[in-house]
UniProtKB/TrEMBL annotation:
Database matches in PANTHER family: OXIDOREDUCTASE, XANTHINE DEHYDROGENASE SUBUNIT C-RELATED
InterPro entries membership: CO_DH_flav_C, CO_DH_flav_C_dom_sf, Diverse_Substr_Oxidored, FAD-bd_PCMH, FAD-bd_PCMH-like_sf, FAD-bd_PCMH_sub1, FAD-bd_PCMH_sub2, Mopterin_DH_FAD-bd
UniProt protein name: Xanthine dehydrogenase YagS FAD-binding subunit
Pfam families recorded: CO_deh_flav_C, FAD_binding_5
Top-rank taxon: Bacteria
Keywords assigned: Oxidoreductase
Species whose genome carries this gene: Amycolatopsis saalfeldensis
Record domain FAD-binding PCMH-type: where: 1-212
SMART domains hit by this protein: CO_deh_flav_C
GO molecular function term, any single one: FAD binding
Length: 319
């Protein structure tokens, strides 16, 4: 790790007036600094700023510095969000990591994290060796010829499924952006991962009220039971009435360059009976447009099966 200057602003205004890299829980930033993937000269520790609070009345609101463990354990947080948080990391990391920082975490692509290798995210124009290299964990949706790295956050998948928004503070004031629109597919500029402008700070996360979001879940498929990133995941919420699905929310992780909302699957579920056959028919469209690589051709099938598994778990008492 290279030397750096550390300051600790106590207000949002002071933080925005500074120049440097924001430090929240540090569970991603410190790792990347140790690897020299990120080498900021000035780090702004924002943990003294009162960006806290969990509200579960008319929708949900999380201050950006709320810790993942506290949100997961809070009554009234929708099950898909709680489960995604609990499955995302060890208890120690959940105790440290902030919700805002989790949404901004960088990819776990091994080429991005190895400064001896080229990487278009780290050094634009240097190349993407994952396309022809070790790519079992990489994306099959939302990829480009410049990048195939998956997005790492679990909870972002659940939040995208539930139409969450982030509140961003900057020198020009505050703006609200839907999380699904906040993230950027790589295209020809994989170094641009989101819509956070220079100097901006996430101050809170909002989830609109959805009365049937209590009937939601998050399923994560991975190589080992704990402390592992998703090969595939699915966040699902269902509104079931009279044995049929009135409405649905579905998003996937581990298979795309951003948290991947699946409107085609949602549309296929609406009006469908609560049966495994209907779930399989809806999930059949989940991987449309997928571009498998040499070692991850199993992911489209795994995505379909993960969605069906989540739907079956969620409707066990309704079939």
């Amino acid at each position: 790790m290279r030397p750096f200057e550390l300051t600790a602003p106590t207000t949002v205004e002071d933080a925005l007036a500074g120049t440097g890299t924001f430090l929240a829980g540090g569970t991603t930033l410190v790792d990347l600094m140790k690897l020299n993937v990120l080498t900021p000269q000035h780090v702004l520790d924002i943990n003294q700023i009162p960006l806290l609070g969990i509200e579960t009345g008319d929708g949900l609101r999380f201050g950006a510095l709320e810790r993942m463990a506290d949100i997961a354990a809070h009554p009234g947080v929708y099950p898909a969000i709680s489960r995604a948080l609990l499955l995302s990391a060890s208890q120690q990391i959940r105790n440290m990591a902030s919700i805002g920082g989790n949404l901004l975490q960088r990819t776990r692509c091994s080429y991005f994290r190895d400064v001896a290798m080229p990487c278009n995210k780290r050094e634009p124009g240097s190349g993407c060796p994952a396309i022809s290299g070790a790519n079992r964990m990489h994306a099959v949706l939302g990829t480009s010829d410049a990048c195939v790295a998956t997005h790492a956050s679990d909870v972002a998948v659940a939040l995208v499924a539930l139409d969450a928004e982030v509140v961003l503070a900057g020198e020009d004031g505050t703006r609200v952006v839907k999380l699904a629109e906040f993230y950027r597919e790589p295209g020809e500029t994989p170094e641009v991962e989101h819509d956070l402008r220079p100097g901006e700070l996430i101050t809170e996360v909002r989830v609109p009220r959805l009365d049937w979001a209590e009937n939601s879940t998050y399923v994560k498929v991975r190589d080992r039971q704990s402390y592992e990133f998703a090969l595939c995941s699915a966040a699902v919420a269902l509104d079931i009435r009279d044995g049929r699905i009135a409405d649905a929310r579905v998003a996937a992780g581990g298979v795309a360059t951003v948290p991947w909302r699946l409107p085609g699957v949602e549309a296929a579920l609406r009006g469908a009976p609560v049966t495994q056959e209907a779930f399989e028919a809806a999930a059949a469209v989940a991987a449309e447009g997928a571009r498998p690589l040499s070692a991850n051709g199993f992911k489209p099938s795994l995505l379909r099966r993960t969605i069906v598994r989540a739907l079956l778990e969620l409707t066990e008492g309704n079939r």
